[in-house]
Fold each of these.
Amino acid sequence: MIFNIFFISLLVGAIACATLISVADFRRRIIPDAYLFPLMLIGLILITFFGFPISMRDAVIGATFGYAVSAIIGFAFDYFIRHRSPDATPPIGMGDIKLIGVGGLWLGPNGLSCALIIAGVTGAIWAHAKKQKFIPFAPFFLLGGILSLIGTIILL
């Protein structure tokens, strides 16, 4: 009984962190570490003690893959954009890179790729509909992550 209550309270905490991350990124275009690190710790606790939602091996591979690939892409974009115009803003920030790493921890490499595809498509639709050049990435990535997590749970 206590085990189930602890599990549910961790999931509620993860939902609260994800909501706060989305709201902060949507309003201020920043992802605070104060919400991101608890989301990572909750994921580590769930994977370590409950085996939810994926195995530890997949979580480590997903987190490493997510952080490394997004960091390489982010720094490459930053380098080429600043090379063309020193005053330009980079299209992906460190908060987005850390969020993708945490998403890889929660989802593994397969779920992370699905979440990134969903985030890219929904973000592009949003940007086109609102005629915006820059969009907040976190709400779309977390939507893709939730849909991917639900798909992972259903397929288990």
Note: The chain has a mean pLDDT of 92.
Amino acid sequence: TLLERILRQFHVAINPRYRANQQGFGETYCNIYTWDATRALGAEIPHWVNGRGEPVGPGQGGELDANTTIEWLRRFGPSYGWRPVTSAARALDVANLGYPVAASWYNPGGIGHLAMVRPGKPDLERGIPIAQAGARNFDDGYLWDGFIQGSTIEFWTHD
């Protein structure tokens, strides 16, 4: 599908742009991958925003990490075409129709996480297909390969 081709073009598993710990401070780049993928899909989840939550160019506003990106989705996402999806099964249905879907975990005590839902079939043990940058980068993984099993995952789609 077009969605799958667009997600794969970034080669997140091997692309140095998304390699963890580039600066030696324990950073990961799930938010950068999500930003890149959603921009390519014409449905940007921004990495930089101004004080009104409007997407701006790099360095022109505040930089969002995973948690603040999720806060942006909750507060401003609907104004930019992003809406919540009720379940992982529904998120996969929407991705299988070719729409962008982001998976997110808000961590109030630390670093959150973002990933892109891929078209495909679920795995009974591992969940729905995703691609992600993070502590582990992969193009062909599943929800519980990238998120802590049992954690509350929010899904977002853009029509």
Note: The chain has a mean pLDDT of 94.
